[in-house]
Specification:
binds magnesium ion; four-stranded antiparallel sheet; globular; 10 helices; Rossmann fold; alpha/beta; 2 domains; binds adenosine-5'-triphosphate; 274 residues
Length: 274
Amino acid sequence: MNLTPDAAGADVHVALERVDMAFGDRQVFRGLSCAFAAGKVSVILGGSGSGKSTVLRLIGGLVRPQAGHIFVAGEDVTCLSERQLYGVRKKLGMMFQGGALLDSLTIYENLAFPLREHTSLDERAIAAAVHRRLDAVGLTDVDRLLPSQLSGGMLRRAALARAIILDPVIVLCDEPFSGLDPVSVKRIENLLVQINQRLGITIVLVSHHIASTMRMAEHVVLLLQSDDHHPGTTAVAGSPEELRQSSDPRVVAFLTDECDDGDARAADVAAGNT
Ligand SMILES: Nc1ncnc2c1ncn2[C@@H]1O[C@H](COP(=O)(O)OP(=O)(O)OP(=O)(O)O)[C@@H](O)[C@H]1O
Ligand SMILES: [Mg+2]
């Protein structure tokens, strides 16, 4: 059931091949391989500290591995200079853990900022692009508001609008659901699926939220740390159904433990499953 990582494969948009990653003497990955298909919604699962955010940072070229290769839209980002990475990053939209809008700028300016930095659009075109993206995430009348004046769910939607402002081909999202009420979780989930389907954007998202993952993911990568029986980091990959039916005790334990958490139950309440 493991997807064979093959950077040459036409439908693989992002692939990690035998990646070793350490921060100082803290070894996060040893020999990690996994792949994410073009045009699909893929979700990375794993325990806290298993390295999910690190995978996104490696894909974005924000940190470099000690060994291995990372292919993003056909380019090995481990071999690129900072300047070349800049070009790859333009193809990526990133929504980081916590949203990360700039607190001192209005929502309009937060979205306009990447356009001012990376394009030569005039103010009219910038305004049109900003409003098109705000419309796409269902936000109106927020131009003049500061991030602190938005609710948690609105903030995530604004962060998502900013992540797609430069028309990326891949969007990376770190925990877009954490801390949200069940209705907002559903809304962000639907938005991500819409963005994927309407714009054909590849989505790689990190989540703790099993219920949501099982609803929206076409492909799941579960990160498992090495133990006495399994040297190196294992990425168990497959469709949500394949993971659910897995007989691997580590997969079963992860899905059972995580499904016991409040987030998953809350989402079930919202979905009318209880
Ligand atoms: N800049 C850094 N310096 C040192 N250690 C780091 C750094 N970034 C991450 N780590 C370590 O790498 C490991 C993986 O971190 P990461 O943030 O990727 O985990 P995660 O799976 O996203 O966790 P969570 O679910 O809690 O967000 C952790 O042990 C963390 O302490
Ligand atoms: Mg994280």
